[in-house]
Amino acid sequence: MPETTRPGEVALEEAQEPLRPPAPAGWTFLTNHGHVLVALARDGDLRIRDLALAVGVTERTAQTVINDLVAAGYLERERVGTRSRYTVHHDLPLRHPAERDHSVGELLAIVRREPPAQS
Fold first, then answer.
1. Is the sign of the CA dihedral 7, 10, 13, 19 positive or negative?
2. 3-class secondary structure per residue, the chain
3. Are 58 and 11 in contact, with CB atoms under 8 Å apart?
4. Which value, in Å, is the radius of gyration of the alpha carbons in the chain?
5. Architecture of the domain delimited by 30-112
6. How deeply is 58 buried, as exposed, middle or buried, from its count of CB atoms within 10 A (0-12, 13-18, 19+)?
7. Residue ranges per structural domain of the chain
8. Among 9-23, 24-38, 47-61, 101-115, where is mean pLDDT lowest?
9. Residue 8 burial by Cβ neighbours in a 10 Å radius (0-12, 13-18, 19+)
């Protein structure tokens, strides 16, 4: 007997991506700053529009977060023509006192599943 799916569901064998639990409403484990940092570590050439879509924020919020991260030294912005390229500084400590003994690179290694890069 074939397995049935409900409207909006995809049968397991048809799924394109690994199944993941939906994000809980109201909060996530990373802040917008963390999400932006992860996204730019994956692709430092993302346009603000694409970054905002990836993170789930407005373009204005994405720009504000980038400005915060640049001002704090976690990101370096380089103009390339009319676009910006971003470089993440992996060696800097996380900001919260409870995690200050860990680096940005360590966090990225966890969420990106690769060893931390040296900068």
1. negative
2. CCCCCCCCCCCHHHCCCCCCCCCCCCCCCCCHHHHHHHHHHHCCCCCHHHHHHHHCCCHHHHHHHHHHHHHCCCEEEEEECCEEEEEECCCCECCCHHHCCCEHHHHHHHHHCCCCCCC
3. no
4. 17
5. Orthogonal Bundle (1.10)
6. exposed
7. 30-112
8. 9-23
9. exposed
CA angle at 54 for the pair 56 and 5, rounded to the nearest 5°: 85
Residue 22 phi, psi dihedral angles, 5° rounding: -65, 150
pLDDT digits (tens, 9 = 90+) for 74-110: 999 999 999 999 999 999 999 999 999 999 999 999 9
